[in-house]
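Reminder: ligand-aware prediction takes two inputs, not one.
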Amino acid sequence: PPLYKQRYFFVKDIVNQYKPKKVADLGCGNATLLCMLKFHSCVQELVGVDLLMDRLLDWNSDKLSPSIGDHLGPRDLDLSIVLYRGSAVEKDSRLLGFDLITCIELIEHLDSEDLAKFPEVVFGYFSPGMVVISTPNSDFNPLFPASTFRNSDHKFEWNQTQFQHWASNVAKLYSYTVEFTGVGAPPPWAKHVGYCTQIGIFKKKQPDPGSWILAKPTGSRVSEPEEHAYQVVFRASF
Ligand code: SAM
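Here is what comes back for the chain with S-adenosylmethionine:
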């Protein structure tokens, strides 16, 4: 399958494996990934956020709405889908308490100012159980016919060392673990270049049971003041 589908299938596998109830996709584009995740019965809340929502609503809002089939064979658990117009570097309290946040081919579209804000918003504030970030791996670019950025809107393309350095620092700062993998394997003679798309899987560290007195009381996020920066552009319930 084409690379973009391999990225979506990668996320589907993660959802199958970890069974998150609340999933948000930042930089969701035309919401194809959300359309695919709606069929996972573990998911009860699906949220998409993107700066631009117009092309999405033309393309995929039908597929996100309940269809006749959804009414004929009702789900065991309710599902709500909400799409917001907003930026992944702005805080919105409706994104608190998620099990999984995905950022598929998003970070390379952030300028240096937004990239600097991104970890504090996503890891510090949204603070989900798990984060999956994918981005092009520039070590792979020499295997392409023309050695330039893959997309003119990319602000940067990191090699494996650069991405892993950034991701490990973020993980350390916000108490997550991170593992690296990817999709789009290189040909056997070029193994060293790594995957075409590099992926970091971040998992929030559980507080050390011995230090529970120092840990923040659970539910402390509930008292976080409501903060709504995003605009709802679509809503559906099943
Ligand atoms: N994740 C989708 C996918 O894999 O098909 C779309 C990836 S597309 C290359 C990057 C998306 O990020 C675009 O839809 C763009 O509008 C969105 N985007 C760029 N900057 C953003 C920001 N600060 N906040 C939210 N979305 C952003």
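The chain has a mean pLDDT of 89. The two ends are 30 Å apart (CA to CA). We will return to this case in the review session.
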